[in-house]
Specification:
Chain A is mainly beta. Chain A is built from no helices and eleven strands. The termini of chain B are far apart. In chain B, 34% of the residues are buried. Classes of the chains: A mainly beta, B mainly beta.
Chain lengths: 114, 111
């Protein structure tokens, strides 16, 4: 079974632009979570989607948004990019998103904001 | 607030020795704990998990120990190999279906 895939793998943007990242979960998984990883803050939860609905959201500004499609694929969008948004953005999927379900991570999208 | 911390940011061990990576957490309501391994340029890879009704769980060359009394989690890797060199994260899942991660420990295996 294929793992979690993320596209693109690398991205360079300039301040003020917006960006859309894509995530395809493991086949059959319906829950998709997004995380931001930076050297200073570590891994931080962004949001979680299940059945096309955002179920939970972390402490990030409204510039960070996401959505999930009927096939469970998910996208996240960051508008008005800031230098501090440079990070590795990780997507993780699980079957139903239960509290005791293992989340499996993709390779991430490395975003550099100049 | 909730937090997961690590006692040692870096750990160097000789190949063949056992490694122990520690993690402290503060949320006593945590029910599920996971260890992930992250190699350079890759996403976190699931290693082993443990639920709060257990205090020990073993996998292939890895053992996770949970001490709920002192809110401490540890990962033991037996016969550490060069391929074990990576950053190891502990994480816990609380009531909001989100994972809270520790800051990570860099494990370096020396030849």
């Amino acid at each position: 079974k294929a793992g979690v895939t993320q596209t693109p793998r690398y991205l360079i943007k300039t301040r003020g632009q917006q960006v859309t990242l894509s995530c395809s979960p493991i086949s059959g998984h319906r829950s998709v979570s997004w995380y931001q990883q930076t050297p200073g803050q570590g891994l931080q939860f962004l949001f979680e989607y299940f059945s096309e609905t955002q179920r939970n959201k972390g402490n990030f500004p409204g510039r960070f948004s996401g959505r999930q499609f009927s096939n469970s694929r998910s996208e996240m969008n960051v508008s008005t990019l800031e230098l501090g948004d440079s990070a590795l953005y990780l997507c993780a999927s699980s079957l139903l998103g239960g509290e005791e379900e293992t989340q499996y991570f993709g390779p991430g999208t490395r975003l550099l904001v100049l | 607030g909730e937090s997961v911390g690590l006692h040692l940011p870096t750990l160097s061990v000789q190949e063949g020795d056992n490694s122990i990576i520690n993690c402290a957490y503060s949320n006593s309501a945590s029910d599920y704990f996971i260890w992930y391994k992250q190699e350079s340029g890759k996403g976190p890879q699931f290693i082993i998990d443990i639920r709060s009704n257990m205090d020990k769980r073993q996998g292939q060359r890895v053992t996770v120990l949970l001490n709920k009394t002192v809110k401490h989690l540890s990962l033991q890797i037996a016969a550490t190999q060069p391929g074990d060199s990576a950053v190891y994260f502990c994480a816990f899942s609380g009531s909001a279906r989100q994972l809270t991660f520790g800051s990570g420990t860099q494990l370096t295996v020396l030849p």
